[in-house]
């Protein structure tokens, strides 16, 4: 009996080792996916257009709202819905024994669950600098100079109800995963420069391309009809007709530029 137990424990350990190894490898890959490459530079100090940080309002549920949303099985994470619940005041009479009623609050996106988050470091081309040294007698240096003001806009990838609410929830989850300044709009000002230089040898033509990076966030939104349920002097939330819809979004990275240098 002891021998059989020993064999079972040994087999369990053998099966667990590769699983743990894969988990660690996946975690390392996820971390590497959000590491800023060396060819992507922060231009927040050099940018001639001051971008405003798109800070999301953190709405804390009131004591009553927290009690109400804790009483339902579906997570309610929509900041605008939480704010609405905070501001809603329904007070049944303490002597309303036997009273029952349902108050319709509306159909809302309740929460967003992220399935995948990636960064495209070359989301949108914003600039190109060139230096022709084909007829030159010595090597020359070229640097990045933004020729025109560029506005980079993010957006949802498909149509969906309550897009503003959903964009807020997607941005909050993306910011939790990525330690970079994210916003649905960012601007690179004209004549923005960076000190990094690139060598163009004799008999060569150099081209320096600049790109704005962006995060691609994809996941699923849960919708539901929200009701206040009144039973006597007790209040609760009821959610009906729950549906789910897949959604994606592009969210630009503020004040970062990805460079690609080529010689011909």
TrEMBL record:
<dbReference type="InterPro" id="IPR025548">
    <property type="entry name" value="YfkD"/>
</dbReference>
<protein>
    <submittedName>
        <fullName>YfkD family protein</fullName>
    </submittedName>
</protein>
<dbReference type="Pfam" id="PF14167">
    <property type="entry name" value="YfkD"/>
</dbReference>
